[in-house]
Amino acid sequence: MSCEPWQCAEIAATKKANVIQKPEIAVAMMKRAQHPILIVGSNVTERWMDGKQAIEYIIEFANASKIPVVATAHMVGEFVKRGYTPAAYWNAMEISQRVCDPTWMGLDGKGHPDLVIYVGMPYYMEALILSGLKHFAPDLKTMTLDNMYHVHASWSFPNASLEEWAANLKVLTSKYSGGQ
Amino acid sequence: MTDKNVHVKIDEMKTNAGLVKNLELSIGKVINDNYTEEPMGPTPMPSITTLRDWDMKLLTKYKPFYMPDCDSCCLCTFGKCDLTAGKRGACGLDIAAQSSRIVMIAASIGSACHTAHSRHLVNHLIEKYGRRYPIDVGGLNVKVEAPVSRLVTGIKPATLGDLDDILTYTEEEITQILATAHTGQEANPLDFESKAFHIGMIDHVGMEVGDIAQISVFGYPKADPEAPLIKLGIASVDRTKPVVMCIGHNVVPSVGIIDYAKENKIDERIEVVGLCCTAHDMSRYYTRARIVGPISWEIRFIRAGLADVVVLDEQCIRTDVAEEAAKVNTPVIAASEKNCVGFKNRTNDSTDSIVEDLVTGKVPGVLVLDPEKVGEVAVRVAMKMAPIRKRKNVLPTAEEVVAIAKTCTQCKACQRNCPQDYFIPAAMKAAAAGDLSKLEEIYEVCIGCLRCESACPQKIKIHSLIVKAGEKSMQCEDNLCRSGRGAVSDVEIRSVGGPLVLGEIPGIVAIVGCSNYPKGGKDVYDIAREFASRRYIVALSGCSAMSAGSYRNKDGQTLYEEFPGGFEAGGVLNVGSCVSNSHIAGAAIKVANIFAKRPLRGNYEEIADYVHNRIGAVGLAWGAYSQKAASIAAGFWRLGVPVVVGPHGSKYRRMLLGRKEDPENWNVIDARTGETVNVGPSPEHLFNVAETKEECIVQIAKLCMRPNDTWKGRSGKLSHYIDLHKRYMGVMPNDIHLYVRTMADVPITMKDEITQVLQANNWKESIIPDPTLLPRMVRKMK
Question: Is residue A86 part of a domain?
């Protein structure tokens, strides 16, 4: 798939995301990060792949990777319902404003996140948030696990089908010990 | 109050002092400030910097969080300039200033739009009825007739001429603000934000003037909680009669249509229907008018062949309406200077010739700038066209939908261009196999933007397929919307002022804005019903008021039948069209003035300080869409009223967020003692996005808390917040300790679980102050 923004009117930016060609590359970057966080939006209960909702793939990944999860919108209840307790829940703007602030010491107070991973927000909204971080937190690395190319992230997967997305998420999970 | 253009000419005058010959004296305006009941406050007719200090107080609490939609600036020929991540443009501007500049420009466009609308109304009505025509928005029940205008300008308007003077002030401010967007002017993001607040405040004045003028002259409901229920939806239209469809916001041409039909006693023989805010204002004038729906339904009704003539006035009209109407042989009359549609100006031609040309199809449309002539032409054309058109439409048959769907190549261009990212390809695939249910589901939530069609390489009329699949639902749209009631009466304010300020009525939820909803209008109904059931005051306007009336409860009642229409606990009121939004801000201002006896005229800071700290009002633009929604929101920001937007509202590209964990953000001054008191994050934000309906409901409940809440009021508000949080978020909120000031605040039924939370967070009791952000409000320093 080409590396164009998923929504066509999201015009190209002067600084564009690096394309994650293989999930293994994303895993390598995640493993290198000292304080990564994964911010999960409301579309993860709207997308189905092989009879499973995207949130279930995310839970499997979070359990394997141990990356702390921040649930946005009303997703905290959806996680808890499925037996997974996220590290925190915030409004999408509230958490993004904090990761934009270099003095914020993270969810556990031990250090500002050095890698912020987004997945599952409405595309246009996630695009704008990533733009905000690109401009106002230029040292922060951002990544998206969506199956839609996000031009404003530091790293993004290219546009892909739901089936390819499921496959990518499974590979990501499998690269951590205990992941299937 | 004011006299304009005084001109005195003396040819010859003999006095003791001497002889005066050929004296001419011209005075642009004389202000006779003879209103003595209330002294003038410190800031009448504020300039663009008069209230800057107040703005900075708010902007210190609520910091901008920018999300640029574009990395570059292309507003001058030095550029494009790449402003990414700290780079500056050729003029020196950085991305923060550019982002705030865009916010200010958007709000200026919105403000100019409302003000120009009001200017047209006022000029038209003065020309017809004279400057001395008295204003009347509610008879004896409304003594504070123009709270926003009085607050900002200091003028207490009594006549249409006074409204003209107020508009003159707003027009100057819009010009001044817009000038600051020029290259090499304002440079600081917070100064741009302050100016956005200013233009928002001006917008509310402009809106108020327009609505006061039309309420006074056209005999709309005047602060009437029992304003008539108006039929809403396509099924409410008698399609055996000729149909005149009016689209836009400015009621003047519609009044021409209705008057002509009534004068010629043919009003029973035609249907006059409206889309968007014109529909509200038509129905305030004429209860037989039908509201067929919000802005997003324009194309579905035209393609379905409903209209025998389309009349366009101004604002939020799809710019391809004329092309769409031509496909179903529907003539179009453009009736506004602001929206000429490329048609020839036929204002000075004979009515017969215009009608003839439209009916024979010689021209697809005309520009007519005389509202009376529009009235006659529209009615005559509709009556002649109805038997010719025979409801011609361009919707395919169900069989054709299947055949057309088979030509879809599943390229996904439709989905990638859909603002909602709907799974249109999957729906097309199902349709190709004979299953239209997925297309029908999209009908329920589609915002009718047609971007899917524009993108389709196969040129499939996707929207027509969607509308055909949803045709059964469309034919059942027969609901009710309460006619716009206009202002909130002084009597109502007196009744609710105390309970509101003390927190016993948990809040005012103002649901405004357009129909760019993330998942359809049902969300608006659900949100409104949730809060009305909890005895909040729910005020609606514009397309949101229509969407809220488009659904029924299990007993078959619409929201407007289920709940009373008063400004009262559990009331659901439709204030009216876009310009009626000013009445919602006006109601909050009137609480400060009428209930708390705070002086109103030219006293902006004090009143805003009161509203911000004491009145638990929250604005919601769930389907935010236009620049007008931006300016309406900006007017609420300056009053310190938080605004929530749906996910599409993120495209306003800037939030105003508080940081609840930073205690210094939440200090107020206790006006009793002058001491600084921490009151917690109440309200937490001034402008924020809610990603889902569930989150939105919880966020609104939280944002209704105010420092002034009594323990009883706070206990009730906390009870709603916790209950809604548990229900919609699935867990207890994790910030309760920030909102409990004394143990009396804790809802009695939740005492055990809250006590545990308080202990876990090392909570300490604090006092409930007489809160203010203005040192001059301190009565006695301790």
Answer: yes
List strands edge to edge, sheet with B667-670. Answer: B676-678, B667-670, B771-772
State the residue range of the domain holding A63.
19-172
Please give the sequence-ordered ranges of beta strands (E in DSSP) within B533-673, or none if there are none. Answer: 537-541, 572-576, 617-621, 643-645, 654-657, 667-670
Q: CB–CB of B650 and A42 under 8 A?
A: no
Whether a cis peptide bond, with omega within 30° of 0, leads into B683 is yes
With beta carbons under 8 A apart, name residues in chain A contacting B653. 128
Whether residue B69 lies within 8 A of chain A, CB to CB, comes out as yes
Residue B11: predicted pLDDT:
76
pLDDT digits (tens, 9 = 90+) for B460-481: 999 999 999 999 999 999 999 9
CATH number at residue A130: 3.40.50.1220
Burial class for B390, CB neighbours closer than 10 Å (0-12, 13-18, 19+):
exposed
- Yes or no: say if B307 and B330 are a contact pair by the CB < 8 Å rule: yes
**Which of A77, A122, A138 is opposite residue B647, by nearest beta carbon?**
A122
Contacts of A134 in chain B (CB under 8 A): 84-85
Reply yes or no on whether the pLDDT at A12 is more than 90: no
Task: Indicate the residue of B68, B647, B689 with minimum beta-carbon distance to A131.
Answer: B68
Asked if B734 is an interface residue toward chain A (Cβ–Cβ < 8 A), one would say yes
Does A134 sit within 8 Å of B416, measured CB to CB? no
Name the residue in chain B with its Cα closest to that of A85: B731
- B741's CB contacts (< 8 A; 6+ apart) are B679, B680, B711, B714, B765, B766, B767, B768
Least Cα separation, residue B425 to chain A (angstroms): 12
3-state secondary structure B146-167: CHHHHHHHCCCCCEHHHHHHHH
Task: Specify the 3-state DSSP secondary structure of B329.
Answer: coil
Report helix, strand or coil for B83: coil
Closest Cα in chain A, distance from residue B253 (Å): 36
Q: Is residue A66 part of a domain?
A: yes
Domains and CATH numbers, chain B: 234-389 (3.40.50.2030), 406-460 (no CATH)
Q: Contact, B511 vs B546, CB < 8 A?
A: no
pLDDT at position A131: 96
Residue with tokens 């890698």: A115
| Least CB–CB distance from A94: residue in B657, B692, B731 | B657
Q: Is A51 part of a structural domain of the chain? A: yes
Structural domains of chain A, count:
1
Strand locations in B304-345 (E): 309-312, 332-334
Residue A177 C-alpha, separation from nearest chain B C-alpha, in angstroms? 31
CA dist list (Å): B449 to B69, B236, B570, B621: 20, 24, 35, 18
Query: Is residue B18's pLDDT more than 90?
Result: no
| pLDDT above 60 for B74 | yes
- Rg of chain A in Å (alpha carbons): 15
**Cβ under 8 Å to A: B residues 76-105:** 82-86, 95-96
Report pLDDT digits (tens) over B174-185: 999 999 999 999
Pairing verdict, β B667-670 and B771-772? antiparallel
- Tell me phi and psi for residue B551, to 5 degrees: -135, 160
Task: Among B71, B85, B689, select the one facing A125 at the smallest CB separation.
Answer: B689
Q: Is residue A177 part of a domain?
A: no
Say if B698 is an interface residue toward chain A (CB within 8 Å). yes
pLDDT tens by residue, B577-624: 999 999 999 999 999 999 999 999 999 999 999 999 999 999 999 998
Chain centre distance of CA B618: 13
Residue B496 burial (10 A CB sphere; 0-12, 13-18, 19+) = buried
Complex prediction ipTM:
0.97
Q: Residues B413-430: what's their mean pLDDT?
A: 96
